[in-house]
UniProtKB/TrEMBL annotation:
Heme binds at C449. Its cofactor is heme. GO terms for molecular function: heme binding; iron ion binding; monooxygenase activity; oxidoreductase activity, acting on paired donors, with incorporation or reduction of molecular oxygen. The keyword Chloroplast does not apply. Belongs to the cytochrome P450 family. It comes from the Eukaryota. It is a peripheral membrane protein. The lineage of its organism: Eukaryota, Metazoa, Ecdysozoa, Arthropoda, Hexapoda. The keyword Membrane applies. Keywords: Endoplasmic reticulum, Heme, Iron, Membrane, Metal-binding, Microsome, Monooxygenase, Oxidoreductase. This is Cytochrome P450. SUPFAM superfamilies: Cytochrome P450.
Amino acid sequence: MGLLTSLILALTTILCVALYVVRRLLTPAVPTKGSTNIPGPVACRRWPVVGHALLFLGVNTMKDLYETILRISQKRDKVVSFYLGSKLTIGVLDAKILEAIVCMSHKCQNKEHEVYYTFNAFSNGVFSKNGKGWSAMRRPLDRFLHPKNMEHFHRITAEKAEILCTRVGDRCGRGVFDIKHFMDYYMLDITLESLLNVPGTQQIEDTIHFTELTTTAVYVMLKRIVKIAYKIGWIYSLSPLGRQCNKVKDQLRPHLREMVNNCYKQMELAGRNPSDPDFVPENFIEVAIQNGIREKYTEEELIFSFADLMVAGFDTTSAATSSTILFLAMHPEYQERAYQEQIEVMKGSLEAPTREELSRMSYLDMTFNETLRHVSSPGVARTISSQFTIDEYIFPEGASIYVFLNHLFNDPRYWERPKDFYPEHFQPEKVAARPKGAFMPFSFGGRSCPGKLFGIQSSKLILSNLLRRYKFSTSLKFEEMIYKYMIMLESDKGYPVEVTLRAS
C-alpha cells in the first residue's frame, strides 16, 4: 500500500507540474480584452486551450515560424487572426491597413512581450523595454541622434571609412573574401565612438570580439522565441541555448565593465556627477549609468543595459550595406550606373563626400532602398494598448499585431518586379504611386528606428567611397539567394566578393 501511495503522489506531482508549465506557456503576459471580427485561417481548426498552437509544432527556426504564419494566412489579403493559447495575434498583410495603423501607433507602441522578451536575457536595454524604462533611455538617444548632430557623426564616419577602404584595397587581386566581415567592424567602430564615447579601434585590432559573440547571442535569442518551453526561465537556463548565451556574456562582461569604469573616470575628472538631478548625459553609457542609479541596477544589469545599442548600431547597417555591395556585384549594369553617379557628383575626388554631396546621390539612394526591400527585418510585433477599428475590423486591447514587412515589401500589388533586384522601383513617381505602408524598413511610430539618419549616412558614405575606388564581382546569383532570419534577412552563403582597383 505504501508503494502505491508513493506512486500516486509522484504521478500527482508530475501532473501538477505539467499543468503549471502548460498554463505558464499558454498564458500571455498581456491578456486580450474583448474579441475581434478579423477572420482566422481558412482551413485551420482552433482547438480549446491551445488555440492554433498545434500548427507550430514543427517550427524550429524563425524562418519556419514566419513561413508557417504566412501559410495559415493564405486567402486573407488584408488581415488575419490566430491564437497561440489565449493570445490573440493579428497579422497585417495589406499596406493600406498598415498605413491606418501608423495613424494609431500611439495605441500600439509597446513591443510584444511574447516576441521580444527573449532579448532581456542578453541585454535589458532600450530596445526590449516598454513603458517608463523605455522612455527614460529612448529620449536621450533621440537627442544624440538628432539631425543637428549628424555633421559630428559624419566626421567620425569619414575617418573610419578610410580604414575600411584600405583594408578592402589590400584584398585586390587576392581572391574571394566576405565583405560583411570588414563592414561589421566599420559599423561597430562608428557606434562605439559616436554614441558611447569609446575609441573605435576594432577595425585595427579586434580586442572585444563583439561582432562574432553577438551574432551568436542574436541566434540564441531568436531560437528561444520558437522554442515555447524556453519561455519558462529555469528551463531556458538549463538548456544548451541558455548556457550558450551565458558563455557569450562571460566573454563580453570584462570589456563592458571596463567601458563603464572608464566612463565613471571621465565624469569624475570633469567634475560631473550622474546622481545630480541636473545631470545631462553626453553619451549613451552615461544614460545607462544615470538610469541605473535611478532604478537601482546591479552591476550586471548596468553593464548589459547598453549592449543592445551596440548590436543595433552595427548589425543592421552592416547587413544592409554588405548586401548592397553583394547585389551590385551581382548586377554589373546597376553597379556601373551607381559608379557613374559618383563620378558626376564627386568629379573624380577620392575624399569622403560631404553631407550635401551625399544628398545628391539619388541613384545610390534608390539602390540602398531596393536592398532594404529585400533584406529588412521580416516583421515587427506590437501590443495594442487601447482598442481601435480600421475598415470595420476590430483590434482589441491586449492583442498582438504582427506586421509582415517582408511580405509587404514583395507584394506584387505594389511592386513592378517584386522578385528582382530593381532599383527603378524607387523612382520618385513610382514611390508617390505606392501606399506608404508598402515600404517601412525602419518600422513606425514612437518605436521606429532611432538611428535611421545615422545608419543611412554611414552606409551611403562607405558605399560612395568603395564604389569610386573598386569594382566588385561575385559568383553568387541573385535568383539563387537563400536567407537566414536574423534581426535582418542575411545571406545564408555569406557575402563573398572579389575586388579590383578601378583604373581611375
